Protein backbone atom coordinates (compact mmCIF):
# COMPACT_ATOMS: atom_id res chain seq x y z
CA UNK A 1 0.00 0.00 0.00
CA UNK A 2 2.80 2.52 0.76
CA UNK A 3 4.12 1.83 -2.73
CA UNK A 4 0.72 2.49 -4.28
CA UNK A 5 0.37 5.71 -2.29
CA UNK A 6 3.78 6.86 -3.45
CA UNK A 7 2.92 6.04 -7.05
CA UNK A 8 -0.28 8.07 -6.92
CA UNK A 9 1.53 11.00 -5.37
CA UNK A 10 4.21 10.80 -8.03
CA UNK A 11 1.61 10.67 -10.78
CA UNK A 12 -0.21 13.67 -9.35
CA UNK A 13 3.03 15.62 -9.10
CA UNK A 14 3.97 14.67 -12.65
CA UNK A 15 0.56 15.65 -13.98
CA UNK A 16 0.70 18.99 -12.20
CA UNK A 17 4.18 19.67 -13.57
CA UNK A 18 3.06 18.76 -17.07
CA UNK A 19 0.05 21.09 -16.86
CA UNK A 20 2.29 23.89 -15.64
CA UNK A 21 4.73 23.35 -18.50
CA UNK A 22 1.94 23.27 -21.06
CA UNK A 23 0.40 26.41 -19.58
CA UNK A 24 3.72 28.21 -19.74
CA UNK A 25 4.14 27.06 -23.34
CA UNK A 26 0.73 28.43 -24.31
CA UNK A 27 1.53 31.74 -22.65
CA UNK A 28 4.96 32.07 -24.25
CA UNK A 29 4.03 33.80 -27.47
CA UNK A 30 3.64 37.52 -28.03
CA UNK A 31 1.98 39.73 -30.63
CA UNK A 32 1.36 43.42 -31.27
CA UNK A 33 -1.59 44.40 -29.11
CA UNK A 34 -1.74 48.05 -30.24
CA UNK A 35 -0.05 49.93 -33.09
CA UNK A 36 -0.85 53.49 -31.96
CA UNK A 37 -0.67 53.64 -28.16
CA UNK A 38 -1.00 57.05 -26.53
CA UNK A 39 -0.09 57.82 -22.92
CA UNK A 40 -2.43 59.81 -20.73
CA UNK A 41 0.61 61.47 -19.20
CA UNK A 42 3.62 61.52 -21.58
CA UNK A 43 5.82 62.52 -18.64
CA UNK A 44 4.90 59.25 -16.94
CA UNK A 45 4.60 56.74 -19.81
CA UNK A 46 2.77 53.55 -18.95
CA UNK A 47 1.52 50.69 -21.11
CA UNK A 48 -1.31 49.87 -18.72
CA UNK A 49 -4.93 50.29 -19.81
CA UNK A 50 -5.37 52.63 -16.84
CA UNK A 51 -2.76 55.04 -18.13
CA UNK A 52 -3.27 55.09 -21.89
CA UNK A 53 -5.47 54.20 -24.84
CA UNK A 54 -5.12 52.64 -28.27
CA UNK A 55 -5.88 54.58 -31.46
CA UNK A 56 -4.82 52.02 -34.08
CA UNK A 57 -4.61 48.23 -34.33
CA UNK A 58 -3.26 45.32 -36.35
CA UNK A 59 -5.41 43.87 -39.11
CA UNK A 60 -8.72 42.39 -37.92
CA UNK A 61 -7.77 42.81 -34.28
CA UNK A 62 -10.79 41.89 -32.09
CA UNK A 63 -11.73 44.52 -29.53
CA UNK A 64 -12.66 43.43 -26.01
CA UNK A 65 -12.54 39.78 -27.05
CA UNK A 66 -10.47 38.86 -24.00
CA UNK A 67 -8.48 40.65 -21.31
CA UNK A 68 -5.09 42.10 -22.21
CA UNK A 69 -2.45 39.45 -23.05
CA UNK A 70 -4.97 36.61 -23.34
CA UNK A 71 -5.46 36.41 -27.11
CA UNK A 72 -2.90 33.61 -27.37
CA UNK A 73 -5.75 31.36 -26.22
CA UNK A 74 -8.28 32.88 -28.62
CA UNK A 75 -9.79 30.94 -31.52
CA UNK A 76 -7.67 31.17 -33.54
CA UNK A 77 -4.80 32.24 -31.31
CA UNK A 78 -3.58 35.74 -32.10
CA UNK A 79 0.15 35.03 -32.26
CA UNK A 80 1.69 33.83 -35.50
CA UNK A 81 4.97 31.90 -35.50
CA UNK A 82 6.66 31.80 -38.88
CA UNK A 83 7.64 28.50 -40.46
CA UNK A 84 11.08 27.12 -39.66
CA UNK A 85 11.27 25.76 -43.19
CA UNK A 86 11.04 27.37 -46.67
CA UNK A 87 14.08 27.01 -45.91
CA UNK A 88 13.98 29.34 -42.87
CA UNK A 89 11.80 32.07 -41.29
CA UNK A 90 13.40 34.74 -43.47
CA UNK A 91 11.71 33.12 -46.47
CA UNK A 92 8.37 32.38 -44.83
CA UNK A 93 5.07 34.22 -44.98
CA UNK A 94 5.51 37.68 -43.37
CA UNK A 95 1.87 38.12 -42.32
CA UNK A 96 -0.32 35.26 -41.12
CA UNK A 97 -2.86 33.82 -43.51
CA UNK A 98 -4.36 31.70 -40.72
CA UNK A 99 -3.11 28.47 -42.32
CA UNK A 100 0.68 28.41 -42.69
CA UNK A 101 3.46 28.52 -40.11
CA UNK A 102 4.53 26.66 -36.99
CA UNK A 103 1.55 28.35 -35.32
CA UNK A 104 -0.75 29.82 -38.00
CA UNK A 105 -2.34 32.46 -35.80
CA UNK A 106 -5.09 34.87 -36.88
CA UNK A 107 -5.54 36.05 -40.46
CA UNK A 108 -3.61 39.28 -41.04
CA UNK A 109 -3.42 39.25 -44.83
CA UNK A 110 -4.01 42.47 -46.77
CA UNK A 111 -7.68 43.32 -47.36
CA UNK A 112 -9.16 44.80 -50.52
CA UNK A 113 -9.89 47.58 -49.91
CA UNK A 114 -7.41 48.03 -47.07
CA UNK A 115 -10.09 49.63 -44.89
CA UNK A 116 -12.03 46.33 -44.86
CA UNK A 117 -9.58 44.96 -42.26
CA UNK A 118 -10.56 47.67 -39.79
CA UNK A 119 -13.53 49.04 -37.88
CA UNK A 120 -15.76 46.15 -38.89
CA UNK A 121 -16.37 42.63 -37.58
CA UNK A 122 -14.28 39.47 -37.60
CA UNK A 123 -15.58 36.03 -38.53
CA UNK A 124 -16.91 35.61 -35.00
CA UNK A 125 -18.92 38.82 -35.26
CA UNK A 126 -16.64 40.75 -32.92
CA UNK A 127 -15.90 44.41 -33.56
CA UNK A 128 -12.42 45.03 -34.93
CA UNK A 129 -10.08 47.94 -34.23
CA UNK A 130 -9.52 51.04 -36.33
CA UNK A 131 -6.62 51.63 -38.71
CA UNK A 132 -3.63 53.65 -37.57
CA UNK A 133 -3.45 57.13 -39.10
CA UNK A 134 -0.23 59.14 -38.90
CA UNK A 135 2.10 61.46 -40.81
CA UNK A 136 5.67 61.27 -42.03
CA UNK A 137 8.12 61.95 -39.23
CA UNK A 138 5.57 61.42 -36.45
CA UNK A 139 6.10 59.11 -33.49
CA UNK A 140 4.20 55.86 -33.04
CA UNK A 141 4.18 53.74 -29.89
CA UNK A 142 3.43 50.01 -30.09
CA UNK A 143 2.28 47.81 -27.20
CA UNK A 144 2.64 44.06 -26.64
CA UNK A 145 2.28 41.57 -23.75
CA UNK A 146 5.45 40.22 -22.10
CA UNK A 147 4.28 36.59 -22.11
CA UNK A 148 6.85 35.66 -19.43
CA UNK A 149 9.80 36.77 -21.58
CA UNK A 150 10.59 40.12 -19.96
CA UNK A 151 11.94 38.67 -16.72
CA UNK A 152 15.65 39.21 -15.89
CA UNK A 153 16.57 35.59 -16.66
CA UNK A 154 15.35 35.92 -20.26
CA UNK A 155 17.52 37.28 -23.04
CA UNK A 156 16.22 40.60 -24.33
CA UNK A 157 15.52 39.87 -27.98
CA UNK A 158 14.62 43.04 -29.91
CA UNK A 159 11.48 43.77 -31.87
CA UNK A 160 12.07 44.99 -35.42
CA UNK A 161 9.74 47.36 -37.26
CA UNK A 162 9.73 47.22 -41.05
CA UNK A 163 7.72 49.08 -43.68
CA UNK A 164 6.60 48.48 -47.24
CA UNK A 165 6.65 51.04 -50.01
CA UNK A 166 3.65 53.36 -50.24
CA UNK A 167 0.44 51.83 -51.62
CA UNK A 168 1.67 48.28 -52.33
CA UNK A 169 -0.72 46.01 -54.20
CA UNK A 170 0.22 43.07 -51.96
CA UNK A 171 2.21 42.38 -48.81
CA UNK A 172 5.99 42.47 -49.22
CA UNK A 173 7.95 39.24 -48.83
CA UNK A 174 9.84 38.69 -45.61
CA UNK A 175 13.11 39.45 -47.39
CA UNK A 176 11.67 42.74 -48.66
CA UNK A 177 10.68 43.67 -45.12
CA UNK A 178 14.19 42.85 -43.94
CA UNK A 179 15.54 45.33 -46.49
CA UNK A 180 13.53 48.16 -44.93
CA UNK A 181 13.79 47.83 -41.15
CA UNK A 182 13.32 51.32 -39.72
CA UNK A 183 13.57 50.62 -35.98
CA UNK A 184 14.57 48.14 -33.29
CA UNK A 185 12.50 48.26 -30.12
CA UNK A 186 13.23 47.14 -26.57
CA UNK A 187 11.11 44.05 -25.90
CA UNK A 188 11.60 44.29 -22.14
CA UNK A 189 10.40 47.88 -21.90
CA UNK A 190 7.54 47.02 -19.54
CA UNK A 191 5.62 48.96 -16.90
CA UNK A 192 3.10 48.21 -14.14
CA UNK A 193 4.72 44.87 -13.37
CA UNK A 194 2.69 42.44 -11.30
CA UNK A 195 3.42 38.97 -9.96
CA UNK A 196 2.01 37.48 -13.15
CA UNK A 197 4.87 38.02 -15.61
CA UNK A 198 2.69 36.73 -18.44
CA UNK A 199 0.53 39.85 -18.50
CA UNK A 200 3.12 42.57 -18.04
CA UNK A 201 2.33 45.37 -20.47
CA UNK A 202 5.29 46.36 -22.63
CA UNK A 203 6.00 48.58 -25.61
CA UNK A 204 8.29 51.07 -27.26
CA UNK A 205 8.17 54.04 -29.62
CA UNK A 206 9.74 54.98 -32.94
CA UNK A 207 9.48 57.70 -35.57
CA UNK A 208 8.18 57.16 -39.08
CA UNK A 209 10.55 58.18 -41.90
CA UNK A 210 10.27 61.84 -42.84
CA UNK A 211 10.21 61.08 -46.57
CA UNK A 212 7.04 58.97 -46.56
CA UNK A 213 4.51 60.01 -49.19
CA UNK A 214 0.76 60.11 -48.43
CA UNK A 215 -0.94 56.76 -48.84
CA UNK A 216 -0.94 53.38 -47.09
CA UNK A 217 2.12 51.45 -45.94
CA UNK A 218 2.30 47.96 -44.47
CA UNK A 219 4.08 47.72 -41.13
CA UNK A 220 5.50 44.48 -39.76
CA UNK A 221 6.18 43.95 -36.05
CA UNK A 222 8.61 41.03 -35.73
CA UNK A 223 9.99 39.51 -32.54
CA UNK A 224 12.69 36.87 -32.26
CA UNK A 225 12.22 34.51 -29.31
CA UNK A 226 14.89 31.94 -30.14
CA UNK A 227 17.46 31.52 -32.90
CA UNK A 228 14.92 30.20 -35.38
CA UNK A 229 11.64 31.30 -33.77
CA UNK A 230 9.98 34.50 -35.00
CA UNK A 231 6.56 36.01 -34.32
CA UNK A 232 4.96 38.71 -36.43
CA UNK A 233 2.00 41.07 -36.52
CA UNK A 234 1.00 43.18 -39.52
CA UNK A 235 -0.89 46.45 -39.81
CA UNK A 236 -1.62 49.13 -42.39
CA UNK A 237 -0.71 52.70 -41.56
CA UNK A 238 -2.46 55.49 -43.40
CA UNK A 239 0.00 58.31 -44.03
CA UNK A 240 -1.74 61.67 -44.30
CA UNK A 241 -0.31 64.73 -46.08
CA UNK A 242 1.71 67.07 -43.88
CA UNK A 243 -0.07 70.03 -42.36
CA UNK A 244 0.60 73.22 -44.33
CA UNK A 245 1.07 76.27 -42.15
CA UNK A 246 0.16 79.43 -44.07
CA UNK A 247 2.70 82.26 -43.87
CA UNK A 248 1.67 85.37 -41.98
CA UNK A 249 1.79 88.63 -43.96
CA UNK A 250 1.53 92.07 -42.34
CA UNK A 251 -0.74 94.34 -44.38
CA UNK A 252 -1.13 97.97 -43.21
CA UNK A 253 -4.71 98.95 -42.51
CA UNK A 254 -6.33 101.25 -45.07
CA UNK A 255 -8.30 102.94 -42.28
CA UNK A 256 -5.25 104.27 -40.48
CA UNK A 257 -5.84 107.94 -39.59
CA UNK A 258 -3.34 110.68 -38.70
CA UNK A 259 -4.48 113.17 -36.13
CA UNK A 260 -3.21 116.79 -36.06
CA UNK A 261 -3.90 119.54 -33.57
CA UNK A 262 -5.63 122.33 -35.57
CA UNK A 263 -4.37 125.94 -35.38
CA UNK A 264 -6.69 128.66 -34.23
CA UNK A 265 -7.08 129.92 -37.80
CA UNK A 266 -8.01 126.61 -39.22
CA UNK A 267 -10.21 125.65 -36.31
CA UNK A 268 -12.99 128.01 -37.28
CA UNK A 269 -12.90 126.91 -40.90
CA UNK A 270 -12.95 123.29 -39.85
CA UNK A 271 -15.75 123.91 -37.44
CA UNK A 272 -17.93 125.60 -40.08
CA UNK A 273 -17.40 122.88 -42.67
CA UNK A 274 -17.43 119.85 -40.41
CA UNK A 275 -20.78 118.18 -39.76
CA UNK A 276 -22.18 118.33 -36.28
CA UNK A 277 -21.96 115.33 -34.02
CA UNK A 278 -25.67 114.77 -34.44
CA UNK A 279 -25.16 114.32 -38.19
CA UNK A 280 -22.51 111.64 -37.74
CA UNK A 281 -23.63 108.04 -37.23
CA UNK A 282 -23.08 106.78 -33.71
CA UNK A 283 -20.36 104.34 -34.81
CA UNK A 284 -18.43 107.07 -36.58
CA UNK A 285 -18.94 109.44 -33.68
CA UNK A 286 -17.43 106.90 -31.37
CA UNK A 287 -14.41 106.54 -33.62
CA UNK A 288 -13.90 110.30 -33.72
CA UNK A 289 -14.14 110.59 -29.98
CA UNK A 290 -11.43 107.97 -29.52
CA UNK A 291 -8.00 109.06 -28.43
CA UNK A 292 -5.26 109.31 -31.08
CA UNK A 293 -3.43 106.39 -29.52
CA UNK A 294 -6.37 104.00 -29.78
CA UNK A 295 -7.49 105.23 -33.17
CA UNK A 296 -4.14 104.70 -34.86
CA UNK A 297 -4.52 101.24 -36.33
CA UNK A 298 -1.64 98.83 -36.10
CA UNK A 299 -0.91 96.44 -38.99
CA UNK A 300 -3.36 93.56 -39.26
CA UNK A 301 -1.98 90.06 -39.65
CA UNK A 302 -3.68 87.99 -42.34
CA UNK A 303 -3.15 84.31 -42.88
CA UNK A 304 -2.65 83.57 -46.53
**Tally of separate helices:** 5
CATH topology: Coagulation Factor XIII, Chain A, domain 1
Number of strands: 13
How would a crystallographer describe the biggest sheet?
6 strands, mixed
Write down the overall geometry.
Answer: globular
How would you state the average pLDDT, rounded? 80
Organism: Linnemannia schmuckeri
Protein name: Chitin-binding type-4 domain-containing protein
Keywords: Signal
Describe this structure in words.
By secondary structure, this protein is of the alpha+beta class. It has a single domain (28-240), classed as Coagulation Factor XIII, Chain A, domain 1, CATH 2.70.50. The protein is 17% helix and 23% strand. It contains five helices and 13 strands. The strands form four sheets. Strands 3, 4, 6, 7, 10 and 11 form a six-stranded mixed beta sheet that branches. Strands 5-9-8 form a three-stranded antiparallel beta sheet, with no helix packed on it. A two-stranded antiparallel sheet has the order 1-2. Strand 10 and strand 11 (229-240) form a beta hairpin. It is globular, with a radius of gyration of 33 Å. 29% of the residues are buried.
List keywords for this structure.
6-stranded mixed sheet, globular, 304 residues, 23% strand, Coagulation Factor XIII, Chain A, domain 1, disordered C terminus, 3-stranded antiparallel sheet, alpha+beta, single chain
Amino acid sequence: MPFMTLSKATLVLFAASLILLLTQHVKAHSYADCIDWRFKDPKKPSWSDKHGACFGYARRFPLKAKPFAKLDSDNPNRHYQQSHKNPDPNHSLPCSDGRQGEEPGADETMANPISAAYNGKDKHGRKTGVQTVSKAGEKLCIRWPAKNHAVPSEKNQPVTIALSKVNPKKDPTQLQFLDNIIAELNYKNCTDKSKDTDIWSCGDCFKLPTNLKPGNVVMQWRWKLNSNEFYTSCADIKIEPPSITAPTVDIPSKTTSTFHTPTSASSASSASSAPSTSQIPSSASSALSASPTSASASPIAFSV
